[in-house]
Amino acid sequence: MTGTSHPWPIEVPPALAASWTRHLGDDGTAHAATLPALLGDLIDRWDLRPDGTPATGEASFVLPVLRRDGTRAVLKAQPPREETTAALLGLRTWRGNGIVRLLDHDPASSTMLLERLDDTRTLASVADDDTATGILAALQARLVALPAPPGLRTLHDIAAAMLDATPRAATALADPAERRLLHDWAAAVAELHGTSGDRLLHWDLHHGNVLAADREPWLAIDPEPLAGDPGFDLWPALDSRWDDVVVPGGVHRVVRRRFDQLTEALGLDRDRATGWTLGRLLQNALWDVEDGETALAPPAVALAEALTDR
Hints:
This protein is an alpha+beta fold. It has two domains: 14-116, Phosphorylase Kinase, domain 1, CATH 3.30.200; 122-308, Aminoglycoside 3'-phosphotransferase, Chain: A, domain 2, CATH 3.90.1200. Helices cover 50% and strands 14% of the residues. Strands 1, 2, 3, 4, 5 and 6 form a six-stranded antiparallel sheet that branches. A three-stranded antiparallel sheet has the order 7-9-10, covered by helices on one side. Strand 9 (210-212) and strand 10 form a beta hairpin.
């Protein structure tokens, strides 16, 4: 898994290669095997110089580089899939407004050339929670201000699939009270399903996905774009730093203060935002059940209580 067309080695860490294989099968294995040569070709094509130690995310390989004019950037590579295509579409639409700027990309492999941010400083480094939430909310308001471009997944379709999956998933939960709670969350989604929205959502904007930058103090990264109601986009920020900040600060107090800041900054109807946040909890629970869980995640239950017991 080492590139040979350049004097510097480009290696895919075995753990990342194994993750790609586990999630994508033979396609993931093939991508890991061909990535070093691919990146070598892109370095030549875009006239780049490696400029630091590669890093890996949950599903990506990131190589710091310098462009011909000395601009610092990163090559971000991951196997082509629906999420990667959506990310490219979203980044092209946002054009760096509140989010990392897409400088170039390779359509064949979905590899991106992105502006380089400070990956050593996430928004989680801001100790005051109100300040951190205010920064995130201001970025999110800019992101959802745009209508979603054609070609993205829609919350309307996702909500329909969640409603279809709920009855069977509920039977997997051991606690009858949790089964009722799951149905309550589904009822909230059913009530809102007819008006699912058309905004361009990040879908994963939490404190760890906001980095310090040179162009602006803070910018979002790693979008998973979706077309829908901004209320469906609040959960990651409400849940962020759960054990370090939310629980010690008092779950109900911290969740409600964050919710108030987010809904005010985004100009959202609070009841609709609550309903779509319950929908996000439903989505997470359905994924957990699919993975074999037989109980709801305690933070999800606590977050739901904080929002509905106001």
